[in-house]
Amino acid sequence: ISEKETGLNTGGMGVIAPNPYYTKTIEEKFIQNILNSTLKGIKAEKMDFAGIIFFGLMVANGEVYLLEYNMRMGDPETQAVLPLLENDLLELVEYSFDKKLSELNVTWKPLHACCVVGAAGGYPESYKKGDVITGIENASDNELVFIAGAKFENGKFKTNGGRVLNAVAFGETLDEAKKNAYKLLDKIKFDGMYFRKDIGRIK
């Protein structure tokens, strides 16, 4: 919850894409030691699988470790990654169901993305609900605000959860994307809004 990875654990307070720690060397280790083993296991179990496998990875000391599998995309990771996808996601899903995914060439925009979570004060412990959120409409065409722990009531967005919203912005460099994401957050207000100020900090 706090800067420099201190404080209580959360569902995630922000993310950047692409991940600078996921180097070509790390990718090769992931494919050889984790991905290929996973695919081998799926085939050995004779599973007729088509869908999304989300690999939760940890990179440390030049090695990559598998922490978890999910059969869905992660939050807030998805909000930074998918906007960089040039393909139509629905087309990718349909091709995977038809066992034709290898016929598509997946391409990515040559940009960086930064996603910062705006949370309710007190999260991940007790927090208020029902505070009016303002400024979402001030997001520009190249900025994204994903509503999470909020509801639309009487023509207004109101807080309704711990991680209230995700602010996503882009840039040609990581520093530019980070700067733009925090500029976007400055446009948005609700009582007690909290966000980490060090998302995307490279050690």
What shape does the CA trace take? globular
- The portion of residues assigned to helices is 10-25%
- Sheet with the most strands: spatial strand order: 1-4-9-6
The value of Rg in angstroms is 19 Å
SSE string: EHEEHHEEEEEEH
Number of helices: 4
- Which sheet architecture does the biggest sheet show? 4 strands, antiparallel
Mean pLDDT: 96
Strand content: 15-25%
Question: How would you characterize this protein structure?
Answer:
The protein contains four helices and nine strands; from the N terminus they run βαββααββββββα. It is of the alpha+beta class. A four-stranded antiparallel sheet has the order 1-4-9-6. The protein has a three-stranded antiparallel sheet with strand order 5-8-7, with no helix packed on it. The chain has a two-stranded antiparallel ribbon with strand order 2-3. The longest helix has 21 residues, at 24-44.
